[in-house]
Request: fold
Amino acid sequence: MAHGDDRGLVLPPRLAPHQVVVIPITRTDEEIVAVNAVIDTLIDDLKDIRVKVDDRDQYRLGWKFTEWELKGVPIRIELGPRDIASGQAMIVRRDTGEKQTIPFDQLGVKIAALLETIHHDMFNRAVNFQAEHSRKIEDYEVFKASVEEAGGFIQAHWCGNAACETKIKDETKNTIRCIPMAWEKEEGVCIYCGEPADRRVVFAQAY
Reply:
């Protein structure tokens, strides 16, 4: 999966059900009232953004942080009494783990801009990863060796016969993951049977 790591999902902002999760950091009833009042104001500034406020009191902060990282929410906002006193919120990016503080009066504009930055950064990383792990192969013996040694994505000609794909799967565990319709036709021969083929497809192993 392109958008994930050892801690769970890493969702692109435009696809994420919740783009931002706000986690209050409080200990006393007085702090809860003060922090919630600020959150209500900040939510108004984030009205065009999909925001979730996690004010559940039955879970510890560490548990909440882990849960929302697992779910892949792009931005986490941490807000406690010290943040209120300083007039700025702690912001954590899910994709990089980078932390920064943003003044309350700039939060709406800067969070919107940061979501766009995250989206483009993730897209570029995915494109670069695909390019670095893709290769064109013409010979089936090389295909099999490449599967064993490197894995990744193999761009090879296929004749369109399902039997060839089945045999490749049985012998290498690789299947056709994509038939890119935007690619120009390219005359060649099927990687398995040697019959004429007019386009490449993408083989890879499913996990």
